[in-house]
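Marked as duplicate of an earlier ticket. Keeping the data here for the record.
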Amino acid sequence: MTHDHSPISSSISGLFRGLALLLLLALALPALADKPGDDRAIDGLEEGRILWDVTLGDPERLIARLDVILETREDMQRQGLEPHMIFAFRGGAAGLVAESTDHLDLADADAVERLHDRLQDLQGLDNVHMEACSIATRRFDLGQRDLLPGIELVGNTFLSIMGYERQGYSTIRID
């Protein structure tokens, strides 16, 4: 059996893939419009303050969690809350927020670069702050100069969690 790899065949194949994607989006949009609210839980709130306690050291799984975090932010906005988010990287996650991937397994390098792009996108949003624990970064021999731009090195994220909870942030573990 032979396959036609002509430009016309490729264009038709791409057209069908595009139409299939549009169909899937069209089917998904009504589901998003019908997404239930969280009225009881957020009654009386004007802001949503979440501290994401990030320890997950697997870049692919962390990217997937960041997608859910972004959806959470969008849900807050959709329901009239002003989102405030702090990301505290500790444990294995602290090694993922370094600019260089030299200290990581080579197999993870592509995923880590995609993770860095996602973190940069999140940093561009209002009311987002990111910090990394110096106790955890020590394991990877990383200092402030090694971290991605916009990620602040702090002494101890356990103290950060304590302090931010006193300021009204709810802590959600990402592990």
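See parent ticket for discussion. The first helix runs from residue 7 to 33.
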